[in-house]
Known about the structure:
By secondary structure, the chain is an all-alpha fold. 74% of the residues lie in helices and 0% in strands. The longest helix is centred in the C-terminal third of the chain and has 29 residues, at 218-246.
Amino acid sequence: MKVNGKEFEMELIQLTILSLIQGLTEFLPISSSAHLILVSTFMSWPDQGITVDIFAHFGTLLAVIFYFREDLKKVIKTFNLYEKNNLGLNLLLATMPIAIIGFIFKDLIELNLRSEEVIFWSTLIIGIALIFSDKFSSNQKNLFQISLKDSLLIGGIQIFALIPGSSRSAVTMLAALALGYTKSDAARFSFLLAVPTLSIVFLGELIDLSQATFEVDYFELSYVAFLSFISAISCIHIFLKLIEKIGFAPFGIYRLFLAGFILIF
């Protein structure tokens, strides 16, 4: 962080806004990557650097672990490789597709897909799907009925989250809804799936960081992680309270407005 007062203030504003956006949008079906890219582009902000990304992800990872700590304790205690409806095994299997594809095509995605045009189309298409999601959901299955087949299907769909603007939460929730899970259980599985998925993202970013050479600002990193944590945990709590009442359509409508904003500006 710069010593000059004016630059310090501007950087603090940038870090505050980006950290809050990361926390608020990571678990909503509206795409955190799209909002971070668009806000930075619209404000003409310089790249915040890999350390900010890493610790913003770290903050959101801590938030979902803390919020679902009791569920995760049960998942760990009851983990069984030979029980086909075992939640821990299903989460592990659902994580594998994005881990493999993300590792192989990481550079290709970062170089070719982080454009406003890609974000526009993914925002629009997923937005339309969310608006009509209630129509194709039977709302019959709960989280403890999830099968290996369903987990692999949701995990396979999660690959599309690598496209900026699509949203990991959106694609996994849509997949779960299409397979017949209730809104709250689709959201809960998506959030639990975020733990191994974000852990892999965080570890991958730490490897990138270990290869870079620059001075680390511990105040900046702690500040980013803390704000992302607080905003993410608040977001998860409110979302789970409201989702059965409001459904996914409002998020789809929001995405259509966001797509319109991208088209105009």
